[in-house]
Amino acid sequence: MHEVRATILGGMNESHTELPLMSSRPQAGFPAPGDDQVEKVLDINDLVVRHPAATFFVRVEGDSMEGAGIFGGDVLVVDREVVPRDGSIVVAAVFGEMVVKRLRAQGNTHILASENEQYAPITVTGNDDCFIWGVVVGSVRQFA
Q1: pLDDT value, residue 12
Q2: Which CATH homologous superfamily contains domain 5-13+50-140?
Q3: What is the pTM of this model?
């Protein structure tokens, strides 16, 4: 088992690639007839980035967040402008290590919880070395 860690990939840049968004909506159950009609041109950033100046990406390593649908190799979209709340998935620096965890608030104590029972939660107070870098607002996963 590996702890989930985050590797910062970099911030937003001004270069965007626009790709076609097809108007067809493939069925996940029974097949539907396809079409080749383009609904509009879509920049992938339009789907995953709300606050460009406050957004960065991280690549995940490990399996401690698999219960939340976050797997090793996924690229997370992290927004520093979103206020972390109880239940948010966050990227945090804890005692000098970057982690991806679910934030749980209990009074003046905060718990950074894994979504894999193989990992113990990390309990932090205001005196501990913990900094929330941002809230995870999306992810990108490649299948091939």
Answers
A1: 47
A2: Umud Fragment, subunit A (2.10.109.10)
A3: 0.75
